């Protein structure tokens, strides 16, 4: 499993864009994780699935509510990663109103989840291999904090926890 101090895996996620701009054409676009994280401080959170109850009612809305505070604490971008295809993530982004605040990144083949070692096998529930629920602060591609949830829990990967960690990180860097 990925640990604090490790570099994010060199994989490609997909992002669905509805409007053209900032190098993003309409439709699914590849996002190289390493290139996209270079030189930035990222608040990254991962969820088991788009449109699922906890993810839609609490996880994403929490990051939207704390967006301004996260930015003030030095976060350049907020990423939500899920083992769904880019079209589902695009629809979920519309539903949640994340445009311009949270990048909804699709890990359709669970490549990122497997590379981080943060998979969750929900085959018995008809969902297949998914991502565990977690959050991390990433600075220039290196994991600075990591908060992995116990199965079925939502206690440490929320926006409030990551915001406190971002503030602490910013304070220690002067």
From TrEMBL:
Active site (record annotation): 55 (cysteine sulfenic acid (-soh) intermediate)
Domain of life: Bacteria
EC number(s) reported in the record: 1.11.1.27
Catalysis performed (reactions): a hydroperoxide + 2 glutathione = an alcohol + glutathione disulfide + H2O
BP GO annotations: cell redox homeostasis; cellular response to oxidative stress; hydrogen peroxide catabolic process
The entry's keywords: Antioxidant, Oxidoreductase, Peroxidase, Redox-active center
Cross-referenced SUPFAM superfamilies: Thioredoxin-like (SSF52833)
Protein name per the record: Glutathione-dependent peroxiredoxin
Species assigned in the record: Tepidimonas taiwanensis
């Amino acid at each position: 499993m990925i640990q604090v101090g490790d570099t994010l895996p060199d994989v490609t996620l997909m992002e669905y864009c509805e409007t053209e701009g900032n190098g993003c054409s309409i439709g699914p676009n590849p996002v190289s994780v390493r290139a996209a994280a270079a030189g930035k401080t990222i608040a990254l959170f991962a969820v088991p699935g788009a449109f699922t109850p906890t993810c839609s009612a609490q996880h994403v809305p929490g990051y939207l509510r704390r967006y301004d505070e996260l930015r003030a604490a030095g976060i350049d971008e907020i990423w939500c990663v899920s083992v769904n295809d880019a079209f589902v993530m695009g629809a979920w982004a519309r539903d949640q109103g994340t445009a311009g605040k949270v990048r909804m990144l699709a890990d359709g083949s669970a490549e990122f989840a497997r590379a981080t070692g943060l998979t969750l096998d929900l085959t018995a529930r008809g969902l297949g291999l998914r991502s565990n629920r977690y959050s991390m602060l990433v600075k220039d591609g290196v994991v600075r904090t990591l908060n992995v949830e116990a199965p079925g829990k939502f206690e440490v990967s929320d926006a409030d926890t990551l915001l406190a960690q971002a503030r602490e990180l910013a304070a220690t860097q002067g």
